[in-house]
Amino acid sequence: MNIAYILNSYPQPSHSFIRREIRALEAQGHVVTRLAMRAGDMALVDTQDLEEAAATQYVLRAGITALLHAVFQNFCADPKRFARALKLAIACGRRSESGILKHLIYMVEGAYVVQVARAAQATHAHAHFGTNAASVAMLSQALGGPDYSFTVHGPEEYDAPRALSLGTKVQRSKFTVAITSYGRSQLSRWVGPDHWSKIKVVHCGIDAARFPTPHPLPDGSMRFVAVGRFVEQKGQLLALEAMSDLLKSHPTSHLTLIGDGEMRGEIEGRITHLGLGDHVTLTGWLDEDQLLEELQKAHALVMPSFAEGLPMVIMEAMAAGRVVIATYIAGIPELVQQGETGWLVPAGDAGALAQAMAEMADTAPQVLEQMTKAARTRVLARHDVDAEAAKLAALIAAP
Predict the structure, then answer these.
(1) Where is the Glycosyl transferase family domain (predicted)?
(2) Where in the chain is the domain with CATH 3.40.50.2000?
(3) 39, 41, 203, 263: which has the highest count of C-beta atoms within 10 A?
């Protein structure tokens, strides 16, 4: 099949799951045209991300003349269809915080996407996230482009379902993907039961070949690693509070924070305030090989998030043979099992997080080894990228 992938900002360091999905589809013989509205706003350090950037067409780089020409051609081809699409854009804009003007811009982008999709002979369009990209996919379909589907990850989409017209996007889609059963339940809240059957679960996938036999757990002091954008919902500040508590009973423990973002200054300030300078390392963003190396140096991944879908790094840590200490939210308990593959704690509770980290540190090595094997087995069975890409392809190909 020829598939157009419609994305907002691509590639991004935190969106490696999209890259893996696209490449798995290509490995299965499908042709994928990458269409992003704009380049990502984060520096790219991974060679594979740089390759993806070179392979991506950026809609806004086409320039205003090309975009308006696409609109004019679309209008001339079918004025009535154009009017219906315009009505849809205005209706969605009225519900949205971004307003009508933004949705008219999405419609302009959608008109250009129609042209590119036709030139590429794309028979289907797939978007990631229920935000801008899904709006462009929906409006391009309304303008005569291919049928579309989109993957909803959360948590952002679940914060503003009405403003994002999630119900409308699901109703008009060929099918909609949730990455967890929890996600499917949330999407089912915004459409009637007649549309529930088109909400499918396709997990984000990992490349098992990247995770050979795991390294043994390291000797010595407990080493934890946390990965994610430095934003409120990822809970790094809570992890620092937990570390301060943990050091009272395990004074040589260490935490590595991988990532970057708008809260870096606040995180650095809290590290200083709590006197954690010798116990916390900030690495910035790392490429996939460097991330795997850091996981292999650690005993466990810590995910203190307040809101999530199902983080890719949890899958990667389990595939690398590491247990996970995470908050009991969203789709995380569908993968992480308390006492079997890791620990689950209430979100926002630094004391509970510190207690779980201490329990992990006090667990007998042979028990931890059993847990790491169970974690690896579970994630490889549920999140193989080739199997999940094949599921997505089957949904696209279905009549």
Answers:
(1) 214-377
(2) 2-205+384-397, 208-382
(3) 203
